[in-house]
Amino acid sequence: MMEEIILNNGVAMPVLGFGVYQIPDAAECERCVLDAIEVGYRSIDTAQAYRNEEAVGRAAEKSGVPRGELFITTKVWISNGGYEKAKASIEESLNKLRTDYLDLLLIHQPFNDYYGTYRAMEEAYRAGKIRALGVSNFYPARFIDLAEFCEVKPAVNQMETHVFHQQVQIREVMKKYGTRLESWGPFAEGRNGFFDNEVLKAVGAQYGRTAAQVALRFLVQQGIIAIPKSTHRERMVENFNIFDFELSPQDMKAIAALDRGESLFFSHEDPATVEFLINYGK
């Protein structure tokens, strides 16, 4: 049975979703989303920058699952930053996704005029076009900066979160605002020998589970939303089957000790990274 998280505005969000990052091929993305929905996923996470919103929209429509049972997330990209551009891009995303509302809309990166972007999002929220608002990749300083000066407090902050980077600091910061952490890259894309990690494997052996299942269970058991991505149906099934076992306090402690407290991908404070992100999709 899929567990849900109640966001700070009362909206219920599945604690486990399906991510479509790096599936730009339309036919492949459509197949993957249809497979995921058939497996049982109801939360689908896309973004303007992934260039696959249309495929997600088609799959959601073809699935036959009522729109009210799906939870669709997309994100406003940097090049659509600022009130006017963001406002237009929200309408474009709604059209591409073939829906008259979004369940969750995030600012994808903490760059450009994200205040203007958020104002456009708040306006769409009040108009009933968005059920919940949030951000993505907003590290503590940027997160506080926005959260203190906006009217609708972010419901979610989607960050790189996995056993090697557990985001302990940002979780403490976000508590004040009732903001939930959502994990992108819950498997760290296999980096650092993720799937062969001895701790994850040893814990999994006790329950007859894989390292991947243990890693996901570790997140959702703490109320962290996760959106694993896979193009293989059998992996989608494996990732989905994490609600019929529970990690012990000793297991949780052993996995918590894997935290390195730093990104395995990139730093938002590295000038070269910021320049790359800002120029992407221009």
Automatic annotation (TrEMBL):
The lineage of its organism: Bacteria, Pseudomonadati, Verrucomicrobiota, Verrucomicrobiia, Verrucomicrobiales. Residues 17-259 form the NADP-dependent oxidoreductase domain. Signal peptide: none annotated. PROSITE patterns: ALDOKETO_REDUCTASE_1, ALDOKETO_REDUCTASE_2, ALDOKETO_REDUCTASE_3. It comes from the Bacteria. Belongs to the aldo/keto reductase family. This is 2,5-diketo-D-gluconic acid reductase. It comes from Akkermansia biwaensis. Keywords: NADP, Oxidoreductase. PANTHER family: 2,5-DIKETO-D-GLUCONIC ACID REDUCTASE, NADP-DEPENDENT OXIDOREDUCTASE DOMAIN-CONTAINING PROTEIN. InterPro entries: AKR, Aldo/ket_reductase_CS, NAD(P)_OxRdtase_dom_sf, NADP_OxRdtase_dom.
